[in-house]
Structures are given as C-alpha cells and as structure tokens.
Amino acid sequence: MKKHLIVLLVTFSQFSYSQQTIRPFDYSVQKNFKGKNGAVVSAHPLASQAGLSILKKGGNAVDAAIATQLALAVVYPGAGNIGGGGFMVAHLSNGKNVTIDFREMAPGKASRDMYLNAKGESQLTLSQNGHLASGVPGTIAGIFSSLKYARLPFKTLIQPAIDLAEKGFVITQAEARGLNHFKSDFLKYSSKTSAFVKDTEWQKGDTLVQTELANTLKRIRDNGAKGFYEGTTAKMIVEEMQKGKGIISYDDLKNYKAKEREPVVFKYKDYTIVTMPLPSSGGVLLPMMMKMIEHQPLQEYGFHSVKAVHLMTEVDRLAYADRAKFLGDVDFYKVPLKTLTSDLYIAERMKLYDAEKAGVSTKIGPGEIPYESDETTHLSVYDKDGNAVAITTTLNGGYGSRTIVAGAGFLLNNEMDDFSAKPGIPNMYGAVGGEANAIAPHKRMLSSMTPTIVLKNNQPYLVVGTPGGTTITTSVFQSLVNVLEFNLSLDDAVNKPKFHHQWLPDELVVEENFPGDVLEQLSAMGYSIKKVGGIGRTEAIKIDNGMIEAVGDHRGDDSAAGY
Q: What Å distances lie between residue 113 and 11, 86, 136, 249, 416, CA to CA?
C-alpha cells in the first residue's frame, strides 16, 4: 500500500542481456536526483531504472511510465501488479490533460450483499482474502489505453519486465520479510505453489526468479491486451477462480475496458491542479480541501504549527465525512459533484470549523446536499519535452488477495473490500460508506488513489502521488501545501512527518517522529492521537527553472532515477 522513488546505480547495462551470462539484477538505492533531461521515481530502484532506460532510448514520459509500471509488477509484488488496477494522470507537451481509469470492476456475478451472512452480518474476511475478494483486473487494459500517447513499440516497453522476471533479481531484507510473512497466506489462498514460496526462509540477497510471470508477460508482448484478457492467461484466471469459489468469468475479462475520463482541473491561487476524477475520491476531496484552506493564513501559521495542523485536520474531517455518504462510481450513482466543490458549499462547511478546539465527528456529519440536475504504489515521470505522468496502481492490501493465478505467476487484487459491504461498516482502512459505494455488477469501487500534477504558468511544476489507503488524499494534500504554502524543499515536503484524519474513526493519526510539543497542544484541544510507524510513501518530481528534481520517499526503498 505504499510507494517509493529513488535514483539508483545498477549493476547491469540498460536491460539488454542476450549476449551475457544470465545473472540476477542487483541494485542500490539513491533517494534524490537533479538534472535537466528527465526523471523517474517509483517504489523500487529496478523499476525506476527500467523507466530511465526507456527515456534514454527516446521514449517519452508515457513510454517510461508503462515500462516502470510493468517492471513494478515483477520487482514489487506487494503492490506492483498486472492483477490489479489504478489511475493515470498526464499533462502532455501539447497542453492536453489526460486521465485514464483502469480501476478494477466488480464481476458480473457480484451482488449487493455478497459479503453478508444469513443474519446480515458482514464477513469481511471474504472481501479481503482469497478468490472472492478479487475484482476484474484493469492494469493491462490501462497500459494499452495509454499506449496511443507513447512513442516506442510496446515490445520495447515490456522487455525490461520480462528480463527481470526471467533472470531474477536480488531481494532486500524488507522484501524477504514480506515474502516470509505471507507464505502461509500464499499457500492457503492459492491452488498451487508459486515462485513466492520456497521450503526455507527467504533471506536478504536471495534471487527471486518468476518464470511463470515472464511467460505471462510474453503472451501480453505477443498478443497485446488479448494476451491477458483472452486465451491462455484468461483461462488460467478463470480456472483459478473456479478452484476457490471466485466469480470472475471469461466474459468479465473479455469485456473489461479502461476509460479515459474528463480530468479534474481546478485553480489554487496562481497554480492549476490536475487530478483524477471519480471513482478516485481524491478528485472530489482534493479540490474541496484546497479550497477550504485557500483563504486561510497558512503561511503565517507556519509548517507543523499547532494552528496549521489543527486547520488541516478539521478540513480532512469535513471532506471525509462527505466522502462516506456521497462518493461512488458516477456510472452507477448520481454524485453531487458541482455542489460538493462549489464555493457556496465550501463556505457553509467551514462554518463548522472552530479555530480553538477539535471537532467531534459524531456531531459533524456529511453536509446537506440539495438535488443537483493500501497495497498501492505510485510512480511519477517527467521527460525533456515537458510530458508529465503520475500513475497510482494497487492490489489494495499488501499482496492483494494473496491468491496467485496458477501457471500465470501473478497475484490478484482484493479490491472488492473497497466497496461498502454494508452501510456504516468500515473496510480494512477504517473507511465507512453507504449506498453510493454499494456493490453492483460491473461497478468500480471507490478509491483513494490521487495521482496529481500541478501546473505553474501552464507548465508542469509538481508531479506527485503516494500509496497508503485512505491516507493517500491527505498525504497528497500535505505534500502540495508543504511546497505551495510553506515553501519547503521537495525532500522535506516528501519526508517530514505527516498526519491524517478521516472523520471516522475520530482520531488524529500521526507518524512516530511528529513534534511532541505540537501533539501535547493538540491533545489539550481535544484530539485523540494515534501514532503509527509511517504514512504513505510519496513519489514526487519538481520542475523549476529548467531543473528537474526527483525525490523517493525515505520510508521505503523508493528510488529516483534520471539523467
């Protein structure tokens, strides 16, 4: 559920090895890059390097994003994927803004109460683990939908991922720990053992070779999207479903389509912000939150001041209360978009803000609307021609449903948990929902993923996104405010301690290293404070005066690469 970026030095030469002795890919991580030609930042050094190799071959930012995304499916199996879905936001050098929705979709046999027992009680283990938890994957459809904006042949873009799967790569201590931790789940929820499971414990320095995944990628290379949604791979997915009482069918796969949607574009002072529309909740929450603070004296308050944290927390609370009631798939539910982001509604909601004390979520519900006619990963790319791409993809939980498609070598998502299984019942991230996000056949579940691009003078200025479940939108919000209001360096904007509030549960979540004196004063104002190890893993690029700066989050192995 988290993402990473980094600049890396790798011990291989630009993913061309046909003449070399086969040996696993090894690497080192570099967190910061500055240069003038292009940059990639992602959750894994080898994926960032794959994207950089494409930029150096003459590809644009979309080409590099495709290569990076496919490489993440190999080297970052906890969240990188071809069995999940996500969103792409791009600003092209010709001025066009593009958003592509390749969010997973409920299978045709899905039903409103499929995770309730005979007593009407929710059985969330079914929506979070195993075959029934999976929505129809959208990642491959999204990649091919974006290909029209790329330059290079698809076979060139997928080859780094094939090489990484076929030849293997050296795993880190964190990667070994993850594979060991979920070993029993991989065995329990899959019909056949896989490359992720071995008799002994995984160790730092071991090589992970994924031959079955390499073969799946080759079918996609040779047959395009049909190499995934039809033919051998589709057969493997459906057969895996049948072995574990899953409901994804051949028709579900064959009929899945990515959707190019109208971008959310709004002004914030002298900047233009481009982000993803629904089913990304960020497409509604981010403009709401930015508008709520736009006329407040944040700069005067100062970074991590009690007044600034209090204001931003209450803005989070108000926005997330509305998320719970009003947001869902606009193809299935009439969401009052114009009202929620209108100046009049924002002003009305801010009347509930008390500058002296914490709000109480049980007393601050969703607004009145008149009738109106975490496992996730992020990558950011910018090229020398001015194309910018932000992509956030997900399996939902770490390693998704833990179900590995037999013979195909990839993990399926557990995105069905992002629906509202029952009104008022929280999902794995504590988010509650209602009828707007109820399960229905072929419906797309609400997401928190918020890939975002900020324009300054109509040119890309910031490219940003993060994993982290419901903390995604608040992390993007803070990253933007840290740069646009508090004038922090990009490194500080990404890595300084973050905080989060999502209305329910009524608690202010902060990272362990958050300033203690600030927390004492916030507690005195009435906040219930919960400390956590980390919030998100932001991947960010800043372009200013011809200089490109990329930062990989220090919370993980995130890596930035550029030239």
A: 52, 25, 18, 19, 12
